[in-house]
User: What shape does this take?
Amino acid sequence: MYATQRSQMYFPTSPSTAAHAQAWWIESAAERIKVWEVARSGSSALLYFGGNAEDVAGTVESLRDAVPDRSLYLVNYRGYGGSTGRPTEAGLREDAIAIYDAVRRRHEEVAVIGRSLGSGVAMQLAAARPVDRLVLVTAFDSLANVAAAHFPWLPVRALLKDRYDSAGRAGDVSARVLMVIASNDEVIPRANSDALASALRPGQAEVVIVPGVGHNTLDLSTEYLRSVRRFLAPSSD
Assistant: This one.
């Protein structure tokens, strides 16, 4: 388990195409990271970090419709979708900061969405850079705690290399936060999502619980993207 843990945590996707988006390559350390870009007029942007097996090219269309007033940047992690390298927590954090800095040179405001694994990346970015708004979808307090819930017979807290301690970074996040929780999430225990919400400042996070959906079926509910659109709309200030 220890030797193969990253292969059980990350499930890289193959290169693909994305309708209505163009590829933008970002240099991060020695890696080339492919970002799907949907350019819009205006000064606001949205960065999207997906789940551990998500081909973000497939998310472009739904996010394009849900967030009509921001330029979109959907990140292919190291080793995913044509990006070079191998995914690790330190590498994904480094890439997220490099991508943010490149996007920030183009836009005055940058909002961030992180889904599942991506919520851990998004939290680390929001703790390191000024983020306009932060959306956390099927998020957790720490990957170590989630793994411990799934493998109670193993000392995973001592063995885990990539821990994504979002609750531990919560005090460094100043952005307004929307947390979207799937009521029947079979991957992220509800207690781990609630623990992250509790780690944020009182009143900082709005929590939306989407009924009748699981971790991978959240997109079947219109409530998910409706909540995202409302939260990210300029009128929500």
Summary: The chain has one domain: 5-236. The chain has nine helices and eight strands. The chain has a mean pLDDT of 94.
